[in-house]
């Protein structure tokens, strides 16, 4: 019980007791006890109020705590909130990689355009020395071809001299080794023992032109005593039947004896004579022999050249009439042509063209721009996966 209740109970008890001391005077009580009891009551009220407030706060806190989300819910909300930003970051990385690829492609395109521009400028004729060098290289190659295929030392010498004049016109210090090799090739050609190749070829060609004029061996081996023109004149002058009969008998005899061949100029075995219709074959075969000699002359085949001329002479002696100035001149010319030595030791004149080709290639490499070596590395680093890893490291 509280102090107030105890005080009240004591007061009631005191009233119920008989007033034994009624006649006596009551002593006066001090006022301090009443004050203490009031303070205690006030303290109890304040304590109760505090307890009630603390309980209300606890209940309210419990309600608030129950309304708060769990940790998993918080993480889910955080992930949901960060998902758009992550997608945006990945998109940015992909766009950066594409931008790097576009820059590399642009740089390569610019480099190619520069190369094409320089080539176009040279093709338009701005660099005259390139044309002169190309022409000199063509002349050197042509000289080698003439010497190897036609064995024409004179033409090869002329072509090398023309190429040297073109190199003098270019007037570049780097051409010194080329001109030195060209001078060595010219000196080697000058040391070759020359013969008149063109003159020999023309002589053979002239002989082929005279084949149609050469007389073939007659089928009967001799000429008739009286030509047909004289027989016609006799018939015109003497118109008797006796003369006419005699002339007819003579013509019949000549036709009969014309079917035989009588040779008295040698003691060799008699070979069968071709009929007159084969005259074209005889002349054409002789022409082919001389053409074979011309081809061997151009190719430098000494044995084939001599064999072809010997066959031509044998063919003339067998199937043509070997009397008269025409056939005698042909035999003498063939004998003179057989005395010509066509076999020559030709030098190698390819040093100059090889040196000039190397100079032109080096000049082209110096003029064209070189692609940087870091292009491939940059293209590898520009891949999306690499870009993401670099961004993640930062």
Briefly characterize the structure.
Residues 99-126 form a coiled coil. With 394 residues, this protein is mostly helical. Helices cover 73% and strands 0% of the residues.
Keywords:
394 residues, mainly alpha, 73% helix, transmembrane helix, HemX
Q: Could you outline the blueprint of secondary structure elements for this entry?
A:
Layout: H1 3-16, H2 32-67, H3 71-123, H4 128-150, H5 153-170, H6 176-190, H7 197-209, H8 228-237, H9 241-257, H10 279-299, H11 302-319, H12 325-338, H13 351-367, H14 375-381, H15 384-393
Helix pairs in contact: 3-15, 4-5, 4-13, 5-6, 6-13, 7-10, 7-12, 10-11, 11-12
Structural commentary:
The chain is mainly α and 394 residues long. Among the domains are: 85-193 and 346-388, no CATH class; 197-223 and 274-338, no CATH class. Helices cover 73% and strands 0% of the residues. The protein is built from 15 helices and no strands. α4 (128-150) packs antiparallel against α13. It is rod-shaped and about 215 Å long. Residues 372-394 have a biased composition (Polar residues).
